[in-house]
Amino acid sequence: MACREIDDLVDERISRVLTQYRESPNLLGVARAYLGQMATVARQACEMLEHFDIDTAVGDQLTILGKALGWPRCHCRGQRRPVFGFACDNECGPPTIPIAGFCEADWDCGNGPDYIEFCFTDDELYRGFLKARIVTLTGDYTRAGISDAAMEVFGDGACILHEGPGTVAIYAGRLLTGIEISIAHLYQQVLPVAPGIMLEIWHGNGPAFGFGSGWGGFCDGAFPSEITLN
After folding, report:
1. Which residues of 153-187 are buried (b: 16+ CB within 10 A; e: fewer)?
2. pLDDT above 70 (res 198)
3. Where are the domains of the chain?
4. Structure pTM?
5. Backbone phi, psi, residue 71, to 5°
6. C-alpha span between 126 and 130 (Å, rounded)
7. Residue 55: pLDDT above 70?
8. Which residues neighbour 79 within 8 Å (Cβ) at sequence distance 6 or greater?
C-alpha cells in the first residue's frame, strides 16, 4: 500500500472548509499548521507498516515479526553441540552431524550437553524460518505446502525426496552449512509436517541422482546423505 503525501492529506481536509470561511487566510493558515502535524504522524504510521514486511524487514523489525509468529530468534536447545572431526565431501559423502575444528568444537566424550542455545544472527536464515512458520500456521500440510516451506528454508532446489508410511523426506537440493546441520532439528519444528509424521532431512551437492524432470542424471546427480536429527 502506497502512503499518501502530507500535502495531499492536508488539502483533502482543507477542501471540506465551508465556502464562507475560505476567504480567511489566517483561519486557513492555522488549519494547515495543525493538519500538517496530524498528516505527518499519519504518514509516519503508514511508513512504519512497510518496515514490517516479512520480505524486507531486518534486525529488530524481523525480531518483532518472529515473536508475533511464535518463533523467537533465540532457542534454548536450538543448536546441536559441534564435535571435533574432519568433514569429508567426496568419497565418504557430506557430513551428517555438526563437525568443527580444534578451536571450535569439543571432543565427543559423552560428558557434555547435546544441545546449546542458538540465536539467529543471520537475518536471511531467520527470514526463511519465519516464512516456513507462516505456512505451518495456516495448517497447510499438503505436498504443496511442505514443498513451499522447504524452499523457503533451503532454497529453490528443495523438494520432497520420498514419502512412506508415517515419513516424509525433504531434500535440500544443496549442501547444508555447518550451522544449518547443527540446527537441523529445528526444521522438524518449523516445517508443516502433520502430527505423527516423522521428518527426514537430506542434503547433497546438487540435484539428487535420478531420472526425469528435476532429477540429476549420471553426470550431475548427487547421492544425498541424511542429516542426523536426534
Report:
1. bbeeebbebeeeeeebbbbbbbbbeebbbbbbbbb
2. yes
3. 6-50, 59-226
4. 0.68
5. -135, 85
6. 6
7. yes
8. 98, 115, 116, 117, 118, 179, 182, 183
